[in-house]
């Protein structure tokens, strides 16, 4: 089978190599899956660079989120078990963790429903307890993680403010349903959000960026607001001033979605069932901006790493998967 492999750490476009390899053999509790579509996530770039919290042995195949087919013909979504990731014709996964692919979504959309939307659902509902009528601010609102949070926020009845970088991404954020869009490249984010909220700020702030975005969040969070820390795509991990959280009366909430797989896996299934319902209703639909063949995966991972994409980029294995 064909699979992209990383033999040394570095930039994805430089270290990912397409090779002919043997199909992986399932271990105890694992299943072999035929990949239909693999969604590209920022962690795939971090895996290539050797900067992710999980460091699989070299060589490995990246690709942490797929829509695939079981040997008995079931269409499922899964997180492949590294080092046999999803940028390949076949991957391995934990049999207990397979989830049915929603019928309302095509393969690329189904592959993109899992990590970003589960992260958004847990962040907004389990951690921040977002309520209808509240104001939600989403950093990097046109990206893969941010676009999911925007849709979930709108589905929950929140007023959504999206912060983006550039006119093209601003247009995408508006199409996603943001009530207010702020372009950080041309506008003062703090001033724009305060004006939009009458000086009150946002009840919930969803931050997958860190760095300067977090500093803005601390200035913009409302009384009894909640900042959900999802990741650090900027590359800078902030050091929050806890005295500021004290005097302003807000909460800083961490979210490591992967922990639920081991700490409370039943919640993963519950979340998936809710997401499937929302997808069937048309309330959420993953924004897949690009569908590329397996041969172009390395270049696509590099574009995601460079932050020049919107929504999700999916690797599709055949014409049927891209339909």
TrEMBL record:
Native organism: Streptomyces diastatochromogenes
Enoyl reductase (ER) domain ranges (all copies): 11-315
Official protein name in the record: Alcohol dehydrogenase
InterPro entries for this protein: ADH-like_C, ADH-like_N, ER, GroES-like_sf, NAD(P)-bd_dom_sf, Quin_OxRdtase/zeta-crystal_CS, Zn-ADH-like_protein
CDD domains from the UniProt entry: QOR1 (cd08241)
GO molecular function, one term: oxidoreductase activity
């Amino acid at each position: 089978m064909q699979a992209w492999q990383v033999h040394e750490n570095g930039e994805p476009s430089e270290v990912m190599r397409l090779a002919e390899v043997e199909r992986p053999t399932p271990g105890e509790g694992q299943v072999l899956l035929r990949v239909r579509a693999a969604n590209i996530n920022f962690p795939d770039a971090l895996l290539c660079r050797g900067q992710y919290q999980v460091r699989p042995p070299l060589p490995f195949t990246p690709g942490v989120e797929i829509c695939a087919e079981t040997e008995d013909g079931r269409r499922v979504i899964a997180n492949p078990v590294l080092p046999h990731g999803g940028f390949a014709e076949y991957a391995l996964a934990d049999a207990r963790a397979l989830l049915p692919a929603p019928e309302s979504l095509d393969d690329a959309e189904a592959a993109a429903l899992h990590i970003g939307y589960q992260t958004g659902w847990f962040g907004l509902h389990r951690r921040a307890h977002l309520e209808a009528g509240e104001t939600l601010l989403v950093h990097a609102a046109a990206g893969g993680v941010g676009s999911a949070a925007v849709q979930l926020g709108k589905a929950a009845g929140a007023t959504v403010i999206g912060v983006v970088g550039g006119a093209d991404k601003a247009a995408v954020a508006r199409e996603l349903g943001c009530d207010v869009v702020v372009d950080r490249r041309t506008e003062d984010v703090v001033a724009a959000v305060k004006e939009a909220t009458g000086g009150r700020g946002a009840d919930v702030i969803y931050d997958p960026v860190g760095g300067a975005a977090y500093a803005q969040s601390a200035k913009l969070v409302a009384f009894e607001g909640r900042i959900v820390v999802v990741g650090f795509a900027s590359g800078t991990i902030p050091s929050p001033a806890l005295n500021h959280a004290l005097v302003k009366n807000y909460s800083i909430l961490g979210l490591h979605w992967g922990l639920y797989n081991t700490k409370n896996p039943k919640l993963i299934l519950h979340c998936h069932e809710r997401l499937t319902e929302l997808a069937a209703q048309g309330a959420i639909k993953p924004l897949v901006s690009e569908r590329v063949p397996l041969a172009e995966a390395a270049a696509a991972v590099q574009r995601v790493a460079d932050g020049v994409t919107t929504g999700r980029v999916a690797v599709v294995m055949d014409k049927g998967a891209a339909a």
